[in-house]
Amino acid sequence: MKEKATVVKHTGSHYLLSKLPEWNVFSAVIKGKLRLKGFNATNPIAVGDMVAYHMEDENTAVISEILPRKNCIVRRAANLSKQTHVIAANIDMAYLIVTIDFPETKPAFVDRFLVTCEAYNVPVKILLNKTDLYTENHAGMIDEFKGIYSNAGYRIDEISAIAGNGIERLKDEIKDKVVLFAGASGVGKSSLITAIDPSLTLKTGEISDAHNQGRHTTTFYEMHPISSGGFIIDMPGIRGFGLVDFKPEEISLFFPEMFRIAEECRFAPCTHTHEPGCAVKQAVEDGEIPYQRYMSYLGMLEENGKYR
After folding, report:
1. Structural domains for the chain
2. Do residues 246 and 300 lie in contact, with contact meaning Cβ atoms separated by under 8 Å?
3. N or C: which end of the chain has fewer CB within 10 A?
4. How far out from the chain centre does Cα 216 lie?
């Protein structure tokens, strides 16, 4: 008899499942090939996936089917092939943790992650962490960052895992939800999760002085139950976020500030690169669309190998 459960951790070919919202974890395996239609992914099953399984014997659960996903977060596989690596599935909210300094989160990383959330229907919010470390010298950078992404329509919260600023508000938001904590290496994801629930003793890494980047501390994708309610999927800190399966004419659709005015372009479809009468290019010139975001967009076109 088949039953259903959620994948809460995977390490290679072994998985841990639980029937959320209950937290009663048990192990499972896959026998044979298992793929979700429409996904050419390096990992057939991701944390957050709902799966059907049966008990082969008293101790062995065998996953037989991946149930349809409401959304997912994907990135290009580490070998830079066209294959997709699914980070997590069925997410109620993705929290992108960024830092203005200590280390600086690169705009290209932020924009690629946000585009992926837009494309795969994942609600996203930006958490500006380490506010306890910022001085008056950082005020201009913070205002510029908030201006860029507020203009695009994203919500931004300033928080501090160390000082505790914004932690209670975050607990309330997470309650009864499955959320993803994502970010580049060194932004303080593990410290933030520990601040939300001190009983979770996750590894934290020091910042490398040589490169001002964080050392990787999370090895596997894993879901954690939070004592105040809800579940957090911890994404390993990464230094790049490659897009995959995007057509050049689609990318601008996932920049909300471009999408809002693209219908005013003289030609359709418009790549917003060389066409006359392009409303997006005009908005960049007028300062209505930040130049930084437009340059990120051009970089994504180049990454697809369709723009030179």
Report:
1. 3-66 (2.40.50.140), 72-234 (3.40.50.300), 248-303 (1.10.40.50)
2. yes
3. N
4. 16
> What number of residues does the chain have?
308
Number of H helices, E strands in the chain: 8, 15
Q: What amino acid is encoded at 218 in this protein?
A: T
Task: Please give the model's pTM, rounded to 2 decimal places.
Answer: 0.88
In which element (H, E) is residue 223 found?
strand 222-225
pLDDT, tens digit, for every residue of 38-79? Answer: 666 778 899 999 999 999 888 889 999 999 999 999 887 655
Q: Which residues pair with 224 in a beta bridge?
A: 232
Residue 194, token pair as written in the block: 């520990």
Q: Give the rounded distance of the alpha carbon of 136 from its chain centre.
A: 30
Distances (CA, A) of 224 to 54, 106, 144, 233: 24, 27, 34, 6
User: Could you check whether the bond before residue 248 is cis, i.e. omega within 30 degrees of 0?
Assistant: no
Cα separation values, 92 from 61, 77, 88, 102, 219, Å: 27, 24, 11, 29, 23
The token pair at 90 is: 């069925």
Q: How far apart are CA 91 and CA 71, in angstroms?
A: 7
